[in-house]
Amino acid sequence: MASMLADWWQKKRAKPIPAHVTFFHCFGGLSLSLIILQVLTGVFMLFFYTPEPDKALYSIEAMSNDVTLGWLIRNLHRWCSTLLMATVFSHMIIVFFYKAFKSPRQFTWISGVFQLLAVFLLLVTGIMLPWDWRAYWSFAIWMDYIDTWFVIGEPLKNFFLSTFSLELLYYTHILVIPLLLAGFLYFHFKMVRKHGISEPL
C-alpha cells in the first residue's frame, strides 16, 4: 500500500508545471483541500449529531464538550466552511480576471459556477442544522428574501415552509448537495485535464 502511494506521488511530482502558473492559480487546489477537510470532519460529526429540533443543539454541545477533540472537529468544520466559500469565490474571480472562461473552457467555467452555488448551499444549510436562535432567524430571513423573488418567490416560499423539517435539511446537507458537488467536481477536473491551465491574456 505504501509503495503504491509512493508511486502515485512520484507520478504526480513528475508532471511538468506550466511556466505561467503562479500563486493565484492555487485557489482551486486550496478549495479542493478544504472540501476534503469538510468531508472528513463532517463524517466525524455524523456519529454525534441528532437531526431533531429539540435535540440538535444539545447533541452538538455534547460532542464539543464531552467527545475527545470534538470541539476542534466542530470548529474546523464550522470555520473552514467560510474559508471554503472565500477560496472558491476567489478562484472564480481570478479565472474571470484571466479570461479563462472563454472557449474552449466555457464548460469548465459553468461547472465552476455550479460548484460555487453548491458550496453556498452547503454553508446556508449547515448554519441551520444546530437549530438555535441563529439558525431559526437565518431560515426566517431566507424565506422573507425568497418571497421577494418575482413570480416564483411566493410559491417557492410556501413549498419550503410546507415541506421543511430538520431531518430533510440534514439529508440535503450531508447527501444531496455533496453528491451534486462531487459530480460537478468530477466534470470540472475532466475539463481541466482536457484543456489544461489557461495562460493569462
Can you characterise this structure?
The chain contains 8 helices and no strands. Helices cover 75% and strands 0% of the residues. It has a single domain (26-195), classed as Cytochrome Bc1 Complex, Chain C (Up-down Bundle), CATH 1.20.810.10. It is mostly helical and 201 residues long. α5 (106-128) runs antiparallel to α8.
Descriptors:
Cytochrome Bc1 Complex, Chain C; globular
What's the short version?
With 201 residues, the protein is mainly α. 75% of the residues lie in helices and 0% in strands.
List the helices and strands and how they pair.
Layout: H1 2-14, H2 27-46, H3 56-66, H4 70-97, H5 106-128, H6 133-147, H7 153-163, H8 166-195
The helix/strand series, from N terminus to C terminus, equals: HHHHHHHH
The helix fraction, in percent, is over 70%
Instruction: Report how far the terminal alpha carbons are from each other.
Output: 43 Å
> What is the number of E strands?
0
Question: What CATH architecture do you see?
Answer: Up-down Bundle
Envelope shape: globular
The helix/strand class is: mainly alpha
Query: At the fourth CATH level, what is the homologous superfamily?
Result: Cytochrome Bc1 Complex, Chain C
Largest β-sheet summary:
none
Unreliable stretches: none
Rounded to an integer, what's the Rg over CA atoms?
20 Å
Mean pLDDT: 91
Name the CATH class: Mainly Alpha
Contiguous helical run count = 8
| Number of separate domains | 1
Strand content: under 5%
CATH topology: Cytochrome Bc1 Complex, Chain C
